[in-house]
């Protein structure tokens, strides 16, 4: 009989290592604050290299037993974890909203989204197939089998504190790997709660270990994993500069890497598009989590003949968005994660205005709500010389660029070192085929603004990283292929 946890019960302040809740070796702690109010929720363990190594020691001890656990038994544990996540949807959603700031409805949506990966990989655990290679020489049998890579270090961002860690831990456990992890310093509580439920579901001690660390100590903690040859894989979601650092620093032990990095997503609206559908798709893609997503459209290109009409439709919809704390049941946009995020948004908008952009709606802070709130914004007459054309704003700001023809649109869309997500709207089937092939991205939304699914491969190209999460392909990044050659059979 599993225990039912309240929101208060789910809040844990210590590291989870080898099946135990333990403070940081140094005894240090750091505060986790509510971005809506600035109030401290609790203080959590501020871990260093010693804590990271202790987590690795536990994962190393647990690896042989978990690796040799039958796939169907690993799947059973994952299914129990999935059921517990669903059972605690409301408490988990409120915890997400409390430490991350997103509206409660979005928090519930994130719980369901993260849980879907646990369910998916519970099933995939029993489908790790190898191959029998057709005989090449008499007396020899050649086969290829897949084995877990070993210890996986999972490092996750603050914008989806449950979903991002669930879609890393679930495939790792399904494959037979053990895990050490560090959530973002802004939002460690949801990840710690998720680990609590995993332990309750029967994940053995040492198989899943999680430490928290402040911004000052995070590098030292992660460096301990980068230098440790026992850690065979790093999976990271976050900024491109940090991803490059992880790639460089892990080269000494040639770890396997999955990097889901920054984006600068274009959203293209052709003149033959259904404009109402395009606006609806853009609203869904852009304003989820207040624009704080890696696949959020950052550059919206609209063909000249429909530019003004589209701008008017969009501005009307955006102006109607209610900005409020997650405690307001009518909130559609919550606070940004912290003051640094608001400062970046404000600087991008100011730069755009200085370079000739027109504010159609928004364009200002909302101090009456708190220091971390910014009004949903639409900017017309955006141009390539503005910072927001080449830097990811990560906030509720939509800049509208004008274009004349397909060649101009696709060139502008691809003219970035990033290639995570891209979107376009058109009702011309031939154009759809042409544009889909030309766009340089790992994810392409065609007349659709919501791309993510546990059944689909998620990941980018160019400086948006490599590796895929979700889908049948997502398990491969946690497996290595072993070739077996058996001779003298005749």
TrEMBL record:
Aldehyde dehydrogenase domain: residues covered: 21-483
Is Oxidoreductase one of the keywords UniProt gives this record? yes
EC class name: oxidoreductase
Q: What is its EC number?
A: 1.2.1.79
Q: Which domain of life is it from?
A: Bacteria
Active-site residues, as the UniProt record annotates them: 260
Which GO BP terms, alphabetically?
A: gamma-aminobutyric acid catabolic process
InterPro entries, A to Z: Ald_DH/histidinol_DH, Ald_DH_C, Ald_DH_CS_GLU, Ald_DH_N, Aldehyde_DH_dom, Aldehyde_DH_Superfamily
Keyword vocabulary terms for this entry? Oxidoreductase
Give this protein's Gene Ontology molecular function annotations. succinate-semialdehyde dehydrogenase (NAD+) activity; succinate-semialdehyde dehydrogenase (NADP+) activity
Matches recorded under Pfam families: Aldedh
Give the family per the record: Belongs to the aldehyde dehydrogenase family.
Output this protein's name: Succinate-semialdehyde dehydrogenase [NADP(+)] GabD
Q: Which organism is it from?
A: Ralstonia wenshanensis
Q: What is the lineage of its organism?
A: Bacteria, Pseudomonadati, Pseudomonadota, Betaproteobacteria, Burkholderiales
Gene transcribed to yield this protein: gabD_5
């Amino acid at each position: 009989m599993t225990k039912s946890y309240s929101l208060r019960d789910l809040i844990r302040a210590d590291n989870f290592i080898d099946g135990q809740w333990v403070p940081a070796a140094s005894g240090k702690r750091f505060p986790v604050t509510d971005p809506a109010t600035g109030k401290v929720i609790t203080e959590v363990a501020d871990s260093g290299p010693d804590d990271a190594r202790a987590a690795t020691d536990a994962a190393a001890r647990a690896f042989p037993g978990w690796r040799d656990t039958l796939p169907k038994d690993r799947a059973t544990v994952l299914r129990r974890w999935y059921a517990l996540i669903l059972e605690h949807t409301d408490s988990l959603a409120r915890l997400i909203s409390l430490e991350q700031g997103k509206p409660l409805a979005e928090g519930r949506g994130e719980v369901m989204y993260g849980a879907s990966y646990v369910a998916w990989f519970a099933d995939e655990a029993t489908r790790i197939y190898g191959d029998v290679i057709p005989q090449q020489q008499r007396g020899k049998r050649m086969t290829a089998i897949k084995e877990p890579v070993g210890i996986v270090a999972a490092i996750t961002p603050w914008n989806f504190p449950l979903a991002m860690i669930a879609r890393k831990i679930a495939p790792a456990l399904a494959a037979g790997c053990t895990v050490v992890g560090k959530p973002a310093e802004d939002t460690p509580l949801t990840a710690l709660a998720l680990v609590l439920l995993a332990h309750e579901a029967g994940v053995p001690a040492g198989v899943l270990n999680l430490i928290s660390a402040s911004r000052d100590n995070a590098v030292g903690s992660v460096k301990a994993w980068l230098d440790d040859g026992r850690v065979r894989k790093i999976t990271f979601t976050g900024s491109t500069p940090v991803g490059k650092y992880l790639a460089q620093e892990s080269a000494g032990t040639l770890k396997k890497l999955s990097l889901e990095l920054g984006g600068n997503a274009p959203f293209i609206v052709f003149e033959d598009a259904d404009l109402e559908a395009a606006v609806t798709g853009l609203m869904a893609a852009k304003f989820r989590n207040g624009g704080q997503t890696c696949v959020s459209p950052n550059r919206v290109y609209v063909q000249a003949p429909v530019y003004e009409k589209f701008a008017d439709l969009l501005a009307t919809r955006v102006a109607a968005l209610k900005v409020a704390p997650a405690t307001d049941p009518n909130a559609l946009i919550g606070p940004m994660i912290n003051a640094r995020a608001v400062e970046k948004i404000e600087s991008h908008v100011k730069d755009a205005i200085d370079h000739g952009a027109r504010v159609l709606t928004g364009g200002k802070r909302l101090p009456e709500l708190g220091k971390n709130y910014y009004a949903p914004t639409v900017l017309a007459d955006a141009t390539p010389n503005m910072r927001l054309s080449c830097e990811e704003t990560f906030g509720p700001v939509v800049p509208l660029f004008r274009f004349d023809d397909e060649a101009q649109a696709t060139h502008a869309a691809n003219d970035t070192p990033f290639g995570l997500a891209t979107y376009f709207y058109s009702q011309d089937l031939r154009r759809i085929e042409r544009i889909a092939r030309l766009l340089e991205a790992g994810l392409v939304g065609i007349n659709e603004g919501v791309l993510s699914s546990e059944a689909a491969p998620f990941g980018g190209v160019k400086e948006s990283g490599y590796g895929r999460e979700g889908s049948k392909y997502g398990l491969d990044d946690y497996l290595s292929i072993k070739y077996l050659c058996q001779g003298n059979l005749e």
